[in-house]
Give the backbone structure.
Amino acid sequence: MRKWHCILGILVFWGISICAQPKPEALLEQAIINGVTLTFSFKDASDEDYETTVKQRRNPDGSVWRVTETIRAKGFNDRYWAANSKKIYNSDGCFDLMITQNGIMGIVTQDEIPRHTMPKDATYKMTSLTYQGRNCWKITERATGGEMTEFIIDKEKLFILSWNYFNSSGKLLFSDRKKNINFNPVFTDDDFSVPPNAKLKYAKDSRERMKLDIKRVKSHSNNIAKTRKQIVKETNQNRTPGKFRQKVNKLTNHDPWDFICQKAPWFLLPIAVIALGIVF
């Protein structure tokens, strides 16, 4: 009898453990609830390296603060047209910052703080696999419209290592890989604060935000044009003159009086004075 009691207890414990296994959406939610910092790199059309860092924290009231910063790997050196971006979500709204050599221009919108939620009409499938030497779950999320998203989540860190997005025809539209993940770090409010030197413009709606964005890009383009003119002007001033101009400069030394003083035959001066005396 005791033997059957032990077997029954093991079966009950096994059943409870299976039922207690977190669902895929619960795993994603756990990954988001904890503070996360991740960094990944990519290249744009000009084959230039960029680096994006995301910091995220969920506050006790349930609100999510997030900072997404994209910077150029080479910085602004000799790239006066360059611009970095930084987007901050906090309790005051969304701050879309454009960072250039001429300062920080930001657009503020009072949109609802974005929250990470799973679509209610989605279906899920979870399988185990090894990804980059880690024990992971592969979660397939398929919406009713046919779009599909594949997540690969580290079982230990409970964070998304990669995700692929497919359209209803099965074509891969977007793929992302996460690197340098720091799970559950310690953040301060300064990590989610707007730089004090940022010039901010407030937008009431999406249309006004678009207008402000156009003005911001135009202002940056004007600064680029001014900088380009200044560079051309300085280049022309410092440009090495041609051979003919070098000979002229060598003779005249850029000063006609200096040329007269240095090159005039002064031994003819007494003869000129005597000649003038005879004439007059």
